[in-house]
Amino acid sequence: MIERMTACPAGITGLDVSGTVLSRDVNEAIRMVAPTDRLLVRVASRFDGYMAELVGGVQRACRDGQATRCALVVPDDMMPEATMQGEGAGFRVFSATQEAERWLAA
Fold first, then answer.
1. What's the domain range around 52?
2. Mean pLDDT for each 10-residue chunk of the chain (106 residues)?
């Protein structure tokens, strides 16, 4: 499930991700909020989807210009899988929401 965050810092659009999520779910959710300058995607500990599809969808949003900067926040135990897909082109992975918000605001 992907839901829009209700409380985000000014200029940041946020999505909360939990349960099973596929690439098409990510694409559809991002299309609903795009274009946006800064996108924060926060993964809940109860996420049991496919990290590669989630990361791929967020990376694609940055690459295709749907968002200028994209930050993915994952629980510590999911960091190795999330970073395995790589960072770059305005996309970064974090384990703390505050760090991601600071990077997005910079």
1. 2-105
2. 91 94 88 91 91 90 90 95 88 96 94
